[in-house]
Amino acid sequence: MVELKVRKFGNSMGVVLPKEVLQRLKSGDGERLFLTESTDGAYRLSPYDPTFDKKMTAAEGIMRRYRNTLRALSK
Fold first, then answer.
1. Mean per-residue pLDDT, 57-72
2. For residues 63 and 55, what is the distance between their CA atoms, to the nearest angstrom?
3. Phi and psi based region of residue 62 (left: phi greater than 0; alpha: psi -120 to 50; beta: remaining)
4. DSSP-derived secondary structure letter, 9
5. What pLDDT is stored for residue 6 in this prediction?
6. Are 33 and 45 in contact (CB under 8 A)?
7. What DSSP designation does 60 have?
8. HSE-up (13 A, CA, CB side) for residue 18
9. 12, 11, 10, 32: which is closest to 22 by C-alpha?
10. Distance CA 30, CA 73 (A)
11. Using one digit for the tens of pLDDT, what is the confidence trace for 13-64?
12. Distance, CA of 40 to chain centre
């Protein structure tokens, strides 16, 4: 467990993540992190974009459906 302190940054509030947490998240300055809420009300901070998974699932379906066409176009 890592204790974080909420601080004021200009007109906003935020938390500073320790170096060790950023290393575990494989994240750094300027990169995006996503805070998601689970069904039990807990929060999870992750570099994973939940909407990206939906987009990739749709793209994989299209690639599977048009596999032969895409193969011909790649030549």
1. 91
2. 12
3. alpha
4. E
5. 94
6. yes
7. H
8. 8
9. 32
10. 37
11. 999 999 999 999 999 898 989 888 889 999 988 887 778 878 888 899 999 9
12. 20
d(CA 62, CA 65): 5
Can you tell me the mean pLDDT for 4-19?
A: 93
In this structure, the dihedral spanned by the alpha carbons of residues 67, 54, 49 and 38, taken in order and rounded to 10 degrees, is -150
Pair of tokens at residue 48: 């994973």
Is residue 25 within 8 Å of residue 45, measured between CB atoms?
yes
Q: How far is Cα 71 from Cα 69, in angstroms, rounded to an integer?
A: 5
Instruction: Give the pair of three-digit tokens for residue 5.
Output: 């302190």
The per-residue pLDDT for 68 is: 92
Q: What angle do CA 35, 3, 10 make, to 5 degrees?
A: 65
Which residues are bridge partners to 13 per DSSP? Answer: 8
- CA 55 to chain CA mean position, Å: 13
